[in-house]
Write a structure and sequence with these properties.
Shape: elongated
Distance between the termini: 33 Å
Strand order of the largest sheet: 1-2
Radius of gyration: 18 Å
Helix content: 40-55%
CATH topology of one domain: Arc Repressor Mutant, subunit A
Oligomer: single chain
Low-confidence stretches: none
């Protein structure tokens, strides 16, 4: 399983914002500190705002802040919402399945179980947990 760059950047942006939630974060700061382009960061933030994970504040002292408490932002939920396709193999999508052994194949159920386990582990984490420690993370991101 490989997450898209979009999802990776969404998670990293949320971590940055979560560490700075006492004041709105600027897209330029998120992009610079997290090694992302500003254009891509803006797209990520726009999607996170659509999903309610963050809220944007216009104006001179505006920026981005969490749309709900960090404890209420579930990492599995973020991954499901930002990944465009969790179809691991062709046969997971009945509209494009051309696999000749699909009706008798035991691989698809095993892969489905693995995907559900992966997402289940992520469901056990919140943004608050990812930003609570370590102090080294905070030293790298707070500037």
């Amino acid at each position: 399983m490989r997450l898209t760059r979009f999802t990776d950047n969404a998670l990293r942006a949320l971590m940055f914002i979560g560490l700075h939630d006492e004041a709105p974060s600027r897209i330029t700061d998120i992009a610079r500190r997290m090694g992302m382009s500003e254009d891509h960061t803006a797209k990520v933030i726009a999607r996170l705002a659509e999903l309610g994970f963050v809220e944007t504040i216009r104006g001179r002292s505006g920026g981005v802040r969490l749309g709900r408490p960090a404890e209420a932002i579930n990492i599995g939920e973020v991954v499901r919402a930002t990944e465009d396709n969790l179809t691991l193999v062709e046969c997971f999508d009945p509209s494009s399945n051309r696999c000749p052994i699909a009706p008798a194949c035991a691989l698809a159920p095993a892969l489905d179980e693995a995907l559900n386990a992966f997402l289940g582990v992520l469901d056990g984490y919140t943004l608050a947990q990812l930003t609570a420690r370590p102090q080294a993370l905070q030293r790298l991101l707070i500037a």
